[in-house]
Amino acid sequence: MGEAVEFFHANGYANGFSKNCEEDNQLDNLHNCSWYEELIDDDLKWSFALNRVLHKGTSEYQDIALLDTKRFGKVLVIDGKMQSAEVDEFIYHECLIHPALLCHPDPRTVFIMGGGEGSAAREALKHKSMEKVVMCDIDQEVVNFCRRYLTVNQETFCHKKLNLVINDAKAELEKRNEKFDIIVGDLADPVEGGPCYQLYTNSFYEKILKPKLNDNGIFVTQAGPAGIFTHKEVFTSIYNTIKQVFKYVMVYTAHVPSFADTWGWVMASDQPFSINAEDMDKRIDARIDGELLYLNGASFLSSATMNKTVSLSLLNEMHIYTEESARFIHGHGVAYRH
């Protein structure tokens, strides 16, 4: 994390945004605010005002911050990258969880890689058919402070159908004899030196993950930024890598305001995805307890239609994600810095 300085050359915290901000009478109410800046690229930052810093530290695996922001509520930041914001996390997590579960004929078991804040598990447990959700996160510290501060998920962590495991997801899947209807990749973005990039590789998908799916099982993963200028960072590569392992692969995207970008997901199976908007709405009504805030049948089908630029990039992508040829988004994890 950066130091408390006025102008940033790395992700960090500051008192005030700039000298111009401090001198502008129209922004007097922000004069004493602290600001957080996320370095999106060498020439681009995303800045938002803070009420306070709830937690900031470095675990064994990653830099962690939980911030109380004025615009987005409580936000979780890992290795300098926004992971989740209180006011709009429902967009990301509904898109991550429900399409796969609704495309499956009868989902009963889910394995979540990552997901330490509990929101992915919360969404999976809304399904009436659900018998068991395993949430496997490598970082006990992330789980602990999310349980403490993210009150929206406190019931989830106490749910009798949730099996919380602190372990590397790769090791956990390898040692388990059981198979799952759905496997979810709710992992941090692949950054150099971060703990997660090995879980985006061809060998992991083929040799470890896919054998742990039931015959009609579905794998879904977050796949990073998918905007018109950012989709080539990792999104198209993750798609092409998964396409080498599964017969049927689809992508879909949604704009997440707190991410300042369009976000992408990849869903895959050896069984075809055949569901229309009307059928999805019927399944939402029949299968899910409570109301979804974002997803419905029409919006999902729309989200699976890419613009021309992204479509061509997906079609022409040749890169296959391996540990030796990994792609990373901007930033570095703890291991890189050590």
Characterization of the model:
Helix 9 packs across helix 10 (297-303). The longest helix is centred in the N-terminal third of the chain and has 15 residues, at 89-103. This protein has 338 residues and is of the alpha/beta class. A 7-stranded mixed sheet has the order 9-8-7-10-11-13-12, sandwiched between helices. The two termini are 14 Å apart. 28% of the residues lie in helices and 30% in strands. The protein contains 12 helices and 13 strands. Residues 1-11, 13-28 and 332-338 have low confidence and may be disordered.
Characterize this entry briefly:
It is built from 12 helices and 13 strands. With 338 residues, it is of the alpha/beta class.
Strand segment count? 13
Helix amount? 25-40%
Distance between the termini: 14 Å
Number of helical segments?
12
Strand content: 25-35%
| Mean pLDDT across residues | 88
Specify the biggest β-sheet.
Answer: 7 strands, mixed
Shape: globular
Oligomer: single chain
Order of helices and strands: EHEEEEEHEHEHHEHEHEHEEHHHH
Q: Order of strands across the biggest sheet?
A: 9-8-7-10-11-13-12
Radius of gyration: 20 Å
Give the uncertain stretches in residue-range form. 1-11, 13-28, 332-338
Structure classification: alpha/beta
